[in-house]
Amino acid sequence: MTAAPHLNGSDLLDFLVGRDDLTVDDIVDLPEDLRYELIDGRLVLTPNALPIHQVISQNTAFALERNCPDDFVVNVEQALLLNRRNELRPDAMVFRAEGAWRSPVLTADVLLVVEVISQSSRFTDPGDKLKRYADLGIPSYWIIDPLAPWVTFTQFLLGPDGTYQCNLQARDLVILDQPWKVTLDLPSWTRRRDRINEQARHRGQP
Length: 206
Fold this sequence. Notes:
2 domains, 4 helices, three-stranded mixed β-sheet, tt1808, chain A, alpha+beta
């Protein structure tokens, strides 16, 4: 399928939504600020994340950036090309600097993907995406869950059989040596989340 070249903006979006035969070439002209993924040829629009979701995504990226070698790049919400019918957008990602010349990034350049669970992704991130990233040979996958009573962290590493093995689950201070030394202060993230939620409740917000 080839998108009509004369369409743009909302007209192009209306033309694409509901189809199941799309490729990455069909979505190249979508607005850059639109939150979407291409999954099995379908354009999937994702709602704007809650502020605490964004805070935790950014904190994770900052923690990775702190000791990041010069030959790698840490980025948030970077488009990732799986194949012509699939383009995902992890919450954070580490990839080789030589692969930073293009977007979406190629999976061959990716060292780590991070997904922060939201209400809309609580089933796809631990299930469908876990298998997709493993099938592509991405060495490591992190899942951070801010919806649990405590913010939790799960680290998956690619095993010799090509599937992810759970290497670590934690809700306390985490100090990792992969992909390099990274410190994740999960208790402080939990406290921050709870303060934000409490202040929102006091203002009468849902």
